[in-house]
TrEMBL record:
One family name in Pfam for this protein: MazG
Protein name: Nucleoside triphosphate pyrophosphohydrolase
Alphabetical list of CDD domains matching this protein: NTP-PPase_MazG_Cterm, NTP-PPase_MazG_Nterm
GO molecular function: nucleoside triphosphate diphosphatase activity
Organismal lineage: Bacteria, Pseudomonadati, Pseudomonadota, Alphaproteobacteria, Rhodobacterales
UniProt entry keywords in alphabetical sequence: Hydrolase
Keyword Hydrolase (UniProt): yes
EC number: 3.6.1.9
Segments forming domain NTP pyrophosphohydrolase MazG-like: 38-111, 177-236
Keyword Phosphoprotein: no
Gene label: mazG
Listed InterPro entries: MazG-like_dom (IPR004518), NTP-PPase_MazG-like_C (IPR048011), NTP-PPase_MazG-like_N (IPR048015), NTP_PyrPHydrolase_MazG (IPR011551)
Length: 274
């Protein structure tokens, strides 16, 4: 067992202990039946979920929860590495070595002879040049190659647009994007009454894609903006529920007009506290 005092814990020892625990869980004779039957594909959704839970803790500034959530995310890396080790593909040490080598390669101004005295703009250009070399080594020839399919859709849209912008395929400013949003909105309204579900979905997707592009031009992360909008909606709707509960009622016992009024009250309270 590890020491109870966190200050006395040794990182290398704890990582080794975690790897050993994971190996035991996957042991065909003595391990956990659930862990044994898992594979890369079945674990991948948990990996994505744990990453989002880390982001959620950071967004809520719930710092006391962060070590646990980061531990859950680390478990996903160890789980995948253990399965790979069993298949004689690679192991955890290979994962750690790969990211260490990548960090050193991508930071020649820290680990090499390049000067650190350069602008942020030059740093970005150098970074992209280094990543271009990495993509070439992976035989990724197209501009959009290597943008992961499994990313959240808004995040992937942003990355695709950034890649295209690097080669000049981009609107010059946000005003042009706003014009495109007006155009796509009109097409969606027209499609609502004339097109089938599949065509309507396509028009809606086009509008979302352009909205992501507007966020990029405004230097906003659309995924983060939507997460915060979700959190705001949750807070205000919970305020509606709390106000109704004070009268012994639930939302289904109310109507839209009353809930709108309670929503506006919650909004005013938030602005007063800001």
């Amino acid at each position: 067992m590890a020491e109870s005092n966190p200050a006395s814990r040794d990182a290398a020892r704890e990582v080794t202990r975690l790897i050993e625990i994971m190996a035991m869980l996957r042991d065909p004779d003595k391990g956990c039946p659930w862990d044994i039957e898992q594979n890369f594909a079945s674990i991948a959704p948990y990996t994505i979920e744990e990453a989002h839970e880390v982001a959620d803790v950071i967004e809520r500034k719930a710092w006391s929860e962060l070590p646990g959530e980061l531990g859950d995310l680390l478990l996903q890396v160890v789980f995948h590495a253990q399965m790979a080790d069993e298949a004689e593909m690679f192991d955890f040490a290979d994962c750690a070595a790969a990211i260490s080598d990548k960090l050193v390669f991508r930071h020649p101004h820290v680990f090499g002879d390049e000067s650190r005295d350069k602008s942020a703009e030059q740093q970005i250009k150098d970074w992209e040049a280094i990543k271009a070399v990495e993509r070439a080594n992976k035989a990724e020839r197209g501009t959009l190659d290597g943008v992961a399919m499994g990313l959240p859709a808004l995040t992937r849209a942003l990355k695709l647009q950034n890649r295209a912008a690097r080669v000049g395929f981009d609107w010059p400013d946000a005003a042009n994007v706003l014009d495109k949003i007006t155009e796509e909105t009109a097409e969606l309204v027209e499609a609502r009454d004339k097109l089938d579900h599949t065509a309507l979905e396509e028009e809606f997707g086009d509008l979302l894609f352009v909205m992501a592009n507007l966020g990029r031009h405004l230097n906003l992360d659309p995924e983060l903006a939507l997460r915060r909008a979700n959190a705001k909606f949750t807070r205000r709707f919970q305020a509606i529920e709390a106000a109704l509960a004070a009268d012994g009622r639930k939302p289904e016992d109310s109507d839209l007009a009353e809930m709108d009024r309670l929503w506006d009250q919650a909004k005013l309270r938030e602005k007063a506290r800001a």
